[in-house]
Specification:
By secondary structure, this protein is mainly α. It is 47% helix and 10% strand. Strands 3-4-8 form a 3-stranded mixed sheet, with no helix packed on it. Strands 5-6-7 form a 3-stranded antiparallel sheet, with no helix packed on it. Helix 8 crosses helix 10 (182-198), helix 9 (162-179) packs antiparallel against helix 10 (182-198) and helix 9 (162-179) packs parallel to helix 12 (230-246).
Length: 395
């Protein structure tokens, strides 16, 4: 369409302008850190002054830089922009050269500052290029102070900045996915079970004032105005989808994904004005604050824009010739490899039913999620409007 063509032109224009910046700098670096040349020279020299949100006085520099990494990755993977791939590799090479002189102790000291999903995106670069140097760098961006207790089944999350930790755990899971390493997978699964089962509220969100409150005391959730942060739920859905790839039959992942998508993510954007919510207060008789252009441009605006482009991401997955239906969302799936089209018609959540129409002649297995909110034995299935006399179980 003309609209989609215009969108591609805008996308290519942004990448081209960023390339001009990267070419002008000449080192592979591409970022907007104030005084960046001096700041990164200090880092390379091992001259580090680090707290939870700054490195040498610069506010979350790796967190900000991760957004550039991730944007270039997505521009290549989703839009096929070859320049973005080249720019991403050059930026990764810059990061590799910058951090090579640092000892492991210095790297771990630097990782005390929020650094976003650097481990995840570098693992992605390794998979995209086949170059294991980037996987080794992803491992160096693995924060051991969080990984080790989680892998040992220890919940030490009280008081930690929540959205600093979730992207780290996504990195643990992503590296484990590529390498088969058990430690990162154990840590990610324990974190997910702990946060979802003991630290989240009904809408699927977590944290107060951006931090994990004590798991046994939810009073701050009712007393404070800064309730669950939208960025946290955005990242928890990323983690959930990643873990579901490793355990595709575990319906608890899809149950949580559905609950959070509808009750937090979908509800985080103003239905008329388009603004995004930073915090969703659970304080009685309180209200939400939505972003406005030139006034509220917080982190949850960036992740919010991305979230509402992802509503089709987890409806269906497949493993070989088995198709799994996770979410009940009106949609059309073109499964080209099988030569079939799946059309799902539903008014969920206003109506607890869905209809799947299969168009084509492919042969495949179809698995439909048994939702956790449906009582055992209460789910009914009709095939060509005829009731199927089968026993259905919760997976």
């Amino acid at each position: 369409t003309a609209q989609s063509g215009e969108g591609v032109q805008q996308h290519d224009h942004v990448v081209a302008e960023l390339r001009r910046c990267q070419d002008a700098i000449g080192t592979g670096y591409l970022g907007g850190i104030p005084g960046g040349a001096k700041a990164w020279a200090e880092v390379a020299a091992g001259d580090l002054k680090v707290d939870s949100f700054s490195v040498n006085g610069r506010w979350v520099p790796w967190y900000n830089l991760h957004k550039v990494f991730a944007g270039l990755r997505d521009a290549w993977l989703h839009a096929g922009n070859a320049d973005a791939r080249d720019m991403l590799v050059r930026l990764s090479d810059w990061a590799l050269r910058l951090t090579t002189p640092l000892t492991d102790a210095q790297m771990q000291d630097m990782l005390r500052a929020e650094h976003g999903g650097m481990a995840e995106v570098l693992a992605d670069v390794s998979q995209m290029t086949g170059d294991l140097r980037y996987l080794a760098l992803a491992r160096r961006f693995t924060h051991q102070a969080l990984l080790q207790p989680l892998a040992a089944g220890q919940d030490r999350l009280d008081g930690l900045h929540a959205n600093t930790q979730i992207p780290k755990v996504i990195g643990f899971a992503r590296i484990a996915q590529l390498t088969g390493e058990d430690e990162g997978q154990r840590a990610a699964e324990f974190f997910w079970r702990t946060v979802v089962g003991q630290r989240s509220v009904a809408l699927g969100g977590n944290s107060v004032k951006e931090h994990f409150h004590p798991a046994g005391d939810f009073r701050p959730m009712l007393n404070e105005v800064e309730g669950p942060e939208t960025c946290n739920s955005y990242n928890m859905l990323k983690l959930t989808a990643l873990l579901a790839q490793a355990q595709p039959g575990l319906g608890a992942y899809a149950d949580y994904y559905e609950r959070t998508l509808y009750n937090h993510i979908l509800a985080s954007q103003h239905p008329r004005d388009g603004g995004f919510v930073y915090f969703t207060p659970l304080r009685p008789q309180h209200y939400r604050v939505y972003s406005q252009v030139h006034e509220g441009m917080w982190c949850c605006v960036g992740s919010g824009l991305e979230s509402h482009a992802r509503h089709g991401e987890f409806i269906y997955t497949h493993r070989g010739d088995t198709l799994q239906v996770h979410l009940f969302i009106a949609s059309t799936l073109d499964w080209r490899e099988q030569g079939v089209r799946i059309i799902q018609r539903t008014r969920f959540p206003d109506e607890a039913r869905t209809q799947l129409t299969v168009d084509g002649s492919g042969r495949f297995a179809l698995r439909i999620r048994y939702p956790g909110w449906v009582a055992p034995g209460a789910l009914t299935v009709q095939i060509n409007l005829v009731s199927a006399a089968e026993t259905y179980t919760t997976l």
